[in-house]
Specification:
Largest sheet of chain B: 3 strands, antiparallel
Distance between the termini of chain A: 48 Å
Number of strands of chain B: 5
Number of helices of chain A: 9
Order of helices and strands of chain B: HHHEHEEHEEH
Strand content of chain B: 5-15%
Strand order of the largest sheet of chain B: 2-3-5
Strand content of chain A: 15-25%
Number of helices of chain B: 6
Largest interface: A-B, 14 and 15 residues
Structural class of chain A: alpha+beta
Shape of chain A: globular
Strand order of the largest sheet of chain A: 2-1-5-3-4
Number of domains of chain A: 3
Order of helices and strands of chain A: EEHEEEHHEEHEEHEEEEHEHHH
Number of strands of chain A: 14
Oligomer: heterodimer
Chain lengths: 334, 174
């Protein structure tokens, strides 16, 4: 049992285990001071350090060496030191740098959000909305690629990719033989399966969930509906390969899409298998737990009701229960 | 006693209130004839004034520049439909009048639709629509404008659900 170290982020002090990164220390505090992350994924080993959106300023290195770090550091890759002081949203330098990073990430992004299926739950969209400039200064042709089908269920739009490597790590760590990776270098690098080999592994569908942009999308959901018109519901099933805890996205009576349950940082709680994701799209396949909590600021929360179950006051009162019999029946059916 | 009390209580906030006094009518007033002739004179006078009525729909009033009428779905310079079924108009619509179904453009349809996704079904319920123009504002593709006429009357409710056949602009003629 090693001693905990003290770290101050934007004036809030927290004690964390040594070896924790600044980003994870900030996540233990929570709230606005958590740096955004496009490539870091806590469930994937070795992820992070690619996108630079989580840059923070270290104004005091540690108790022993109080000199500030000379440049902004990537908080997902920098470990905490005892007595470290970090500035995130309190530093104008960080805000300015992040604006630049967003501009860089968007340089080759096609901005086809009206077409993209990820729009509404896209990390890059949220990041651009919060930290980016309203206009682009880029005047040249953006890089373009043909769409690639990775198997019959996943589609790759390389034009939208920001090269975060999350999908590569997912394939490396969840599946036993990775068949896709990054080809080329620098500006020319792209995600590919080389000879358009299909990915046929039970957990390959998770690359859709980990993708922070709309580069990897579910072909079974392609252009079916906009994310904000579908209603997410928590459900589970007895699955032999995975834990079977998923979010179902309903439009009316129909399940349009099955995804993992994403937490507030856009990371799935449990990776789900392809059988759950692609093959079970009937309500009868699932045990419904209830409507999923959607952040009030999210566009998905429009017309989304979370009180599907009758209110507690009704559940306790016998006469009210009798009066709301029809509503009870309806909730059972769903 | 009662009246005095009420008067005290109901003290008016402004002094604009006029107290109406009802006097009994005199002889000429009881005859009603002067009042009738006065009214007839006004009626007669209007026969020589400019008429305010117009024969709609043959004649139309001049609309103001920011008039919002029936929606139209626009085409681009090459005559392709601009709408990409992004759903932002339906999201912005406070009356939930707009619905759509998206479809993927095929290779041979590139001269018909501008983007790789298009609206195969696009419906506006004109009975729900309040002509607020928020769909116009939300549209990222400049595809919808409320630049048409007054929506025509009809007999059945179902006839007010306007599909693409009524909404999409007529293709350009060369």
């Amino acid at each position: 049992m090693s001693e905990k170290v003290k770290i101050t982020i934007d004036g809030i002090t927290v004690e964390v285990e040594p070896g924790t990164t600044i980003l994870n220390a900030a996540r233990q505090i929570g709230g606005d001071i958590v740096p955004p992350a496009m490539c870091y994924y806590s469930k994937l080993e070795g992820s992070g350090g690619k996108c630079r959106t989580c840059l923070v300023k270290v104004s005091k290195g540690s108790e022993k060496d109080p000199r500030p770090m000379p440049k902004l550091v990537a908080s997902c890759r920098t470990g905490v030191m005892d007595g470290m002081e970090v500035q995130n949203i309190t530093s104008p330098e960080v805000i300015e740098a992040r604006k630049g990073i967003v501009e860089f990430l968007l340089i080759n992004h096609p901005l086809d959000c009206p077409i993209c299926d990820q729009a509404g739950e896209c990390d890059l969209q949220n990041l651009g909305y919060e930290h980016g400039a309203a206009d682009t200064r880029y005047e040249f042709d953006r890089r373009t690629f043909e769409k690639i089908d990775i198997g019959d269920k996943i589609q790759l739009h390389m034009t939208r990719c920001i090269l975060c490597y999350r999908c590569v790590f997912t394939a490396d760590q969840l599946t036993n033989n990775r068949v896709h990776g990054i080809l080329g270098r620098g500006d020319a690098s792209e995600i590919s399966t080389y000879i358009q080999q299909s990915i046929t592994n039970d957990f390959s569908g998770n690359v859709i969930d980990v993708c922070p942009v709309g580069a990897l999308t579910d072909k079974t959901f392609r252009f079916k509906n906009r994310v904000w018109f579908t209603k997410p519901v928590d459900a589970h099933r007895d699955c032999p390969t995975c834990k079977g805890k998923v979010a179902l996205w309903y439009k009316g009576e129909e399940v349009l899409r099955v995804t993992g349950r994403k937490d507030q940082y856009g990371e799935v709680e449990d990776f789900i298998c392809n059988a759950c994701r692609f093959d079970h799209k009937k309500t009868s396949d699932w045990v419904i737990e209830g409507p999923r909590h959607i952040d009030r600021t999210s566009v998905i929360s429009s017309n989304h009701y979370e009180t599907l179950q009758p209110l507690p006051v009704i559940q306790k009162n016998k006469t009210l229960m009798e009066a709301n019999k029809v509503e009870f029946e309806r909730t059972k059916k769903i | 006693m009662m009246v005095v009390e009420r008067k005290n209580r109901m003290k008016s906030l402004t002094n604009k209130k006029k107290v109406l006094e009802q006097k009994p009518m005199n002889f000429w007033e009881r005859l009603y004839l002067p009042a009738i002739f006065q009214g007839m004179a006004i009626t007669f006078m209007h026969m020589f004034k400019k008429k305010e009525t117009i024969f709609y729909p043959e004649v139309k009033r001049e609309f103001s520049e920011n008039w919002r009428g029936m929606h139209s779905l626009k085409r681009d310079e090459q005559g392709r439909e601009r709408c990409t079924a992004c759903g932002l108009c339906a999201l912005a619509c406070p009356a939930e009048a707009i619905t759509m179904i998206a479809a993927e453009r095929k290779k041979e349809e590139e001269h018909l639709y501008r983007e790789e996704k298009y609206a195969s079904v696009y419906e506006i319920n004109m009975l729900r629509c309040i002509f607020c123009g928020l769909c116009e504002e939300a549209c990222p593709k400049e595809a919808i404008y409320l630049d048409g006429n007054i929506v025509e009357s009809d007999y059945l409710r179902q006839d007010f659900i306007y599909g693409k056949n009524k909404l999409v602009e007529a293709p350009f003629k060369a």
